[in-house]
Structure formats: C-alpha cells, structure tokens
Amino acid sequence: MKDYFILRFKMFNRQLTELGIEPIIGYVVGFCVFVFSSNKLFEKTQYADYIFMVISLGVIVSLYEIRKDEFLKLHFSRVEYFKIRILENLIVSSAFIIFLFYQEKYFSAVALLITVCFLSLMSFKTKANFTFPTPFYKYPFEFAVGFRTNYYIYIFAYFLAFMAISVHNFNLGIFSLIMVMLSCLNYYTTTEDKFYVWIFSKSPKDFIRYKFKIILLYATILCLPIIIGLSVFFYSDIEIILVFQFLGYLFILTAMLAKYSIFPDKLNIRYGIVFGLTLWLPPLLLFIIPYLYIQSLKKLKEIL
C-alpha cells in the first residue's frame, strides 16, 4: 500500500515536470493560490463553506477512474482497497477540511470529512450505454465533451445564481457567472490530435473565426440562465453583468488562441503565468490577443 502512494506521488511530480513546472515550486505556488483564493471566497460570500464542500467533492468524483479502481481491486485485498480509497480521498480533500476548521466552520468540516469517507466506499459505475445529452452539436468537441465531463459544475453554478437572487446577493451571482465562464475556458486547455484540426477545410483565419463563433454561441447558451436571472432581479447592475460576460468571452478566446499558437504542443507553465497576469490586469489582453492570433495563424498554416 505504501508503494502505491509513492508511485502516485512520483507520477504526479512527473506530470508537473512535463507541464514545465518544477514540483517544489508548483506545490508552493499552489498552496499560496489556494489560501489566497479561499480567503477571498470567505470574505465575499456567507455560503463559502458550502461552495468549499461542493468543490472538494467534485474534485474527488472527477478523479475517480474505473480502470484504476479495477486495478486496485485486482492487486489489493478488500480491506487494503478501502484503506487506499479512503486515504487517497482524504489527501485530496485535506486542504479543504483543514481550511474549514481554520475558518471555524466545524459542522461543515466534519460533514465534509464524513462524506469523503462515505464516497470512498462507493464505486461510480460510469460504463453505461447512456450518453449524457448536451445542448451542443457534435462539432467542435470542446463543449460537447467538456459539458458531459463537468455538467455538475453548471448545476452548482445555477444553484448559486438562484441563491444569489433569493438572498439578494449580487456578488454571489457574479461568482456563479464567472464559474461558468472558467469552466468553458478550461475546455480549451486540452490539445486535440492534429487530425481534428486537419479535417476542417478552412483557411487558418476562417478556422479561428469559426472557433470564436462557437465560443460566443455555446458560452452564451450556458450563461444565459444566469444572465437572464441577474438582469431581471439586479437590473440596476446590468452594465456590470455585461462587462463580466464580455471579459469572459475575451478570456476564453485568449485560451483558444494560446492553444493553437503552439499547436500541436501542449500548453506549458509559461502560458499559465501569462494568463494569470491577464486575470489581474485585463488590459494586457489588448496586446496578448493580437500576438497569439498571429502565432496561431503561423502554426495552423502548417496543418490546414
């Protein structure tokens, strides 16, 4: 059992290295970002502990793999299997649980701890013939695949928007809108095979234009319930809602251009740092987007 966790730790470090991140630096930066963002979350909304719990459980569910689960059952006894599942899930959720105790949210911390242990005893049977329906056509793959993978994020975001309207908390509503936009942005951090670009009989400019139209259409579809709700109940703040929506489009566009600017290579830490800077200083997008656009055209000319 000890060897299993050592192997997982080494595999995770290797993944960080492949992304261009020094493991030690990655852990330190990750810890700082987690503490900073968590503090901000608890400052902005009274429902932070519930958001924390849902995020933690969502991470645990998303990390579940049927093949890995079958491997554990095959190579370990039943007792060792459950010990590994419990320890693994506790390690993943430990930061959330500790921070909840730090914020004196004792009930939420204990509830999360119990729920994590309970989930460790469950197996999520996802090998089914049922295909989760999406509001998207089969092209492009980013939204269709991403929606099926992270549909629970949208359910949670819509719930937050409903709560924001119920308690008249505009900031919570904006947070739900940002959550949807970040989920859409995440779809463009995965690099597809060259074949899925080559099949488009378009010029590089038309290809990028087509991709951006899809971003506008599909991101709007996912954000529309929140936008309508916030616009009706927070009509005086409609300008702020539209500004956040517009910035969301720009950030997703930036992620898409960043992916194709180095295609078919994967995004590395350098682009992560640049993207982080744009989150703090959105005006940088005025310079970064044209640069990434030019680089994307150069890379796509080699394929299209």
Question: Keyphrases for this structure?
Answer:
mainly alpha, 304 residues
**Helix segment tally:** 13
Mean pLDDT: 81
For the report, how would you describe the main beta sheet? none
What does the radius of gyration come to? 21 Å
What is the H/E order? HHHHHHHHHHHHH
Could you say how many structural domains there are in total? Answer: 2
Q: Spans with pLDDT under 50 lasting ≥5 residues? A: 126-130
Number of strands: 0
Looking at the chains present, what oligomeric state does this protein adopt? single chain
Structural class: mainly alpha
Q: Tell me the β content.
A: under 5%
How far apart the termini lie comes to: 49 Å
Helicity, in percent? over 70%
Shape: globular
Task: Describe the protein in words.
- This protein is mainly α and 304 residues long.
- It has two domains: 119 residues, no CATH class; 161 residues, no CATH class.
- The protein is 77% helix and 0% strand.
- The chain contains 13 helices and no strands.
- The termini are far apart.
- About 2% of the residues have low confidence.
List the helices and strands and how they pair.
Elements: H1 2-18, H2 23-44, H3 48-63, H4 66-75, H5 78-102, H6 106-120, H7 141-166, H8 170-186, H9 195-198, H10 204-233, H11 238-261, H12 269-280, H13 285-301
How would you sum up this structure in a few lines?
This protein is mainly alpha-helical and 304 residues long.
